[in-house]
Amino acid sequence: MTATIGKTTCPYCGVGCGVNLTIPNSSTESVPPVSGDLNHPANFGRLCVKGSSLAQTLQSDDRLLTPIVKGESVSWESAVGTVSDKIAQVVQDHGPDAFAFYLSGQILTEDYYVANKLAKGFIGTANVDTNSRLCMASAVVGYKRAFGSDTVPCNYEDLELCDLLILVGSNAAWTHPILYQRMAAAKKQRPNMKIVVIDPRETATCDIADLHLAIKPGSDAAIFSFLLQHSAQTGILDNDFIAQHTNGFNDALKQANESTPNLVSAAKFSGVSEQALMRLAHWWEQTEKTVTFYSQGVNQSSSGVDKCNAIINCHLATGRIGKEGTGPFSITGQPNAMGGREVGGLANQLAAHMDFATPGAQDLVQRFWQAPNMATENGLKAVDLFQAMEEGKVKVVWIMSTNPMVSLPDTAQVRRALEKCELVIVSDCKAHTDTTALADVLLPATGWSEKDGTVTNSERRISRQRGLLPAPGDAKHDWWAICEVAKKLGFQSAFSYKGVHDIFAEHAALSTFENNGKRDFDIGYFSQISKLEYDGLIPVQWPVPKGKPEGTKRMFEDGRFFTPDGRAKFVPIVPTLPINEPTSEWPFMLNTGRVRDQWHTMTRTGDAALLTKHTDQPYVEIHPKDARQLGIEDKTLVRLTSPYGEALLKAKVSRAISPGNVFAPIHWTQQFSNAAVVSNLIPQVVDPLSGQPESKHAQVKLEAVTEV
Ligand code: SF4
User: What residues flank ligand 1, with Cβ below 6 Å?
Assistant: First the structure.
């Protein structure tokens, strides 16, 4: 008998590559268990090292196999009873906002949908936030301010079709490797294509760059403020597009003229040479087909939303949007950060891309869900949520598939919050993470290859993650656990689904309910989807309205946006620097990010021996001049201290970083060594509009460690 091949989607980054998982039918068969799906439009058969090592993560000695309450293994029935009784009690005694979900871009759209429905429609709280807040919340608000909707205009093909590709705050070579490979291949095929990297560090992505602007950390908006001003001065504005499809251009240009009146001021603000900035400006001026690709370096900032709008302004002003090879293109970090956005998985969203502030949306969603206890206003965003927990306002939190003890800023505060919370419920595949250690209730979850549902990648493409392998022990799907608790709380009919396809169909029906073509997110074509059709779902880019099963490759081709008057909006931008700039006491700026072969807090990638070879130790990158002054040698221990905590890391002395700056990867957890947890150092400073933490910029001081 030959092996069975199941098609699914990689669980790591927001590229969303298609994966073939081979399930041998006999132990003697030797077939590669994981390969890239040749037909998936994200990767066409390619996989990066993380994706191709997935088979090594399928067996774990640390699987959570039964529900555990206060340290004792219990039945699901008992655990569901404990959870639902406590939720009912705190809601009765303290109101619905005493409960919160803290979700993850790792869970599937259907999991997100039922969590959001239970909290916002039935318990009555909008306290549903997610670790995606740490990854792309600023991009969401930037799009909404400009387009009236959270809509990514481009697709991956545009990265290959453009003649100028500007990567801002993205080390795609390590964080989105398959997109990087596609960019590199396009550049090889068309050597005249220009690639510019705007990043304080010289990263691996610079290998394919024609120009690297090593900007002062956080100064990105000044570059785009200058490009807007330069576009006007050089006559490359698309005046017809501005007149017919936008509002607010004059105010945005006036601000750009004031903020960055000339090349000298822009170069000075951003810390780059005038020649280098002018080179970018010339290429921008001469190249119609331009894509600006941005990620966490832009988003994880106290002015992340403004940076996004500074980028979008330039594209609107030159009409470089809605056409092949053009557009502002934000890339998400997680496999389903986008799917969470679609169902309302952020505390300020309602459902189906509607917010609490969307006129008529609360009433519409309430009628659709027939919801008895509809939340009426925004809930708490991630950092605020954990602060409210420490203040005793949030008394029950259900954390799903994420490890906030390592990923949220200011670990000491997160610990205090979880210790104060009366009931911490954690759904996870793993028994031991830094967060499960603080849980009162542990619920065993299915993991990748067992979970069944959909994810949406960074180009709006919905793909299936398929349950191909049996769940071990008592592990259950997250959507099932949420529905069991909902039913126990008395909401039987609204949470009695026939299967995961039924949840997807309901989500699709809500997206088209009384829509009248007014919303960007419409997948109404799937509102009657059968189990068979769902099982065979082919990757497709939304919108997929009724009558358009092929989906939508590129947005805004007709120049119509989702604002009330259909026009995109320019936002005047004042470039600013990070809130916590270096001082004499804290003389270094810490930048954080990822290494090539690890993912988040290593709960999965840490199981693959191959993946630890690339970088086996946490480290801090430091410029040779700074290292010399501090008496720090390569590979020796360094103590980093910030006003919030400290970390001990090995020095990596490198010219890739500028003097006065240091870089450390985020992955290592307390299980490796408490001293290696970089989030110890990060302040809970957030963008005021998006609530996204400024994780890329923290003040620190450094000292060589002679004794530990
Ligand atoms: Fe997975 Fe991202 Fe690598 Fe693709 S690029 S295989 S989605 S980690």
Answer: 10, 12-13, 15-17, 43, 47-48, 50-51, 176-178
Token digits of residue 90: 């705190």
Name residues whose C-beta falls within 8 Å of residue 401's C-beta, 6 or more positions apart in sequence: 103, 104, 106, 107, 427, 428, 429, 445, 478
Would 90 be classed as within a structural domain?
Answer: yes
Tell me: the pLDDT tens digits for 36-86? 999 999 999 999 999 999 998 888 899 999 999 999 999 999 999 999 999
396-400 and 99-103 beta bridge pairing? parallel
Which DSSP string do the residues of 191-253 spell out, in sequence order?
A: TT-EEEEE-SS--GGGGG-SEEE-PPTT-HHHHHHHHHHHHHHTT---HHHHHHHEE-HHHHH
Q: Is the pLDDT of residue 427 over 90?
A: yes
Label the pairing between strands 327-330 and 619-622.
Answer: unpaired
Q: Quick one: which atom of ligand 1 is closest to the CA of 13?
A: 2
d(CA 666, CA 409): 11
Q: Are 221 and 297 in contact (CB under 8 A)?
A: no
| Tens-digit pLDDT profile for residues 660-692 | 999 999 888 887 777 788 999 999 999 999 999
Tokens of 694: 């400024």
Domain count, the chain: 4
pLDDT in tens, 107-124: 999 999 999 999 999 999
Alpha carbon of 17 to ligand 1 centroid (Å): 6
Instruction: State which residues form the domain around 473.
Output: 85-128+339-354+361-541
What does pTM read for this prediction? 0.97
Query: What's the distance, CA 527 to chain centroid?
Result: 27
Which CATH number fits the domain that encloses residue 40? 3.30.200.210
CA of 594 to the centre of ligand 1 (A): 14
